[in-house]
């Protein structure tokens, strides 16, 4: 019943449905991801990121889309890029970056993977970013799909 309601609401509002499997304790996992990210930023002398529920929502939508397709992609439904996804959650941004991953089994593992990748590391340590959001979804094949958004609001 809830799944049907979510799909109907998505069709009526044009919002993406979040009918995907999320790992247990997603809220705690998001806190862990933010804490690990901020520890890496602090080690490099970069400011702390604050959580933002709109960024969590946009990141979760992307993680669900990737899990549904069982592949990594920076594009969402109808090839929506990051800017469109942020506008859908009413996040007016001055800057935004995104990291994605697939297959890592824990928060420390995905954070380490992103820090070990030069391009992902730049996103993790983006000096202009002020807020962050995270999404995690499990694909039918059992693999986890991860999404991180770091952004600065436009005032």
Automatic annotation (TrEMBL):
CDD domains: CAP_bacterial
Signal peptide feature range: 1-19
Domain SCP, first and last residues per copy: 34-146
Keywords: Signal
Presence of the UniProt keyword Signal in the record: yes
Pfam families from the UniProt entry: CAP
InterPro entries noted in UniProt: CAP_dom (IPR014044), CAP_sf (IPR035940)
Name assigned to this protein: CAP domain-containing protein
Species this protein is from: Pararhodobacter aggregans
